[in-house]
């Protein structure tokens, strides 16, 4: 929600930079993300070493983020952690598709369970009005079969028929910053797979095509491939299509779990992603993960609290065709228009 006193902040958010604040970043951010300046209404992003900046920014958990944060701390300047929004775009970022949303967090990365992020605070503090708006957003996301990326077709996956309960286990790529930051590890995936196989359910492991092709390494795919009773699935079908045919989703820290919660599907977590610890998930993270969030996530939340925070209160939205500010419903309309006419995506 935008309040008049925060109108001079980017996106009307009290924790975001004031409009016109010169921001500094590493060379990788300045050169590798040339569109980022438009989100902050700046002609250019400056060097983090510039004496003229009023704060620093860093993207995700890259090595340069520690440097820019240290520079800000040494100079008494604010620092913002940047990531893609939870409703990013029609296509993938690595294919050059520009984002409809990003987040700028003054407290930490949303995937970092070791400390409170701005997203976590927004979820904890969301009120009745946010529940109402969250329900509208959730309904729009679910009815239109949307997720973070929206380029895959809505085709039924080819899975063996079963009368058993079907579990969808989400593998993640080794190096995914959200695993370690959510206080998960390779052991988390091992335990998840062992628990699933001992449950008597049909176990489907959702893996990345690049992992099956040998280009990247997954945490769980290799082990799952040699276990009896596991189905590996890397079909190019949408998140919604996979969720249509499963009874539960088990994950370490993937956004797949959040997508499942939006659709009313039970979710088990083996680490502490942002949507765990609110009474919505079956939390099986280790003692360290439970201890890290126990003192902060003490209220029971509804899925609509999370939807309002993650899709509306937290991110900033822009139309990449002209970089003008938009809201979540405008972003949904742009994605749907891109799906109808790919040249618009």
From TrEMBL:
A Pfam family the protein falls into: Capsule_synth
Domain of life of the organism encoding this protein: Bacteria
InterPro entries, sorted: Capsule_polysaccharide_synth
This protein's name: Capsular polysaccharide export protein
Organism from which the protein derives: Sinorhizobium kostiense
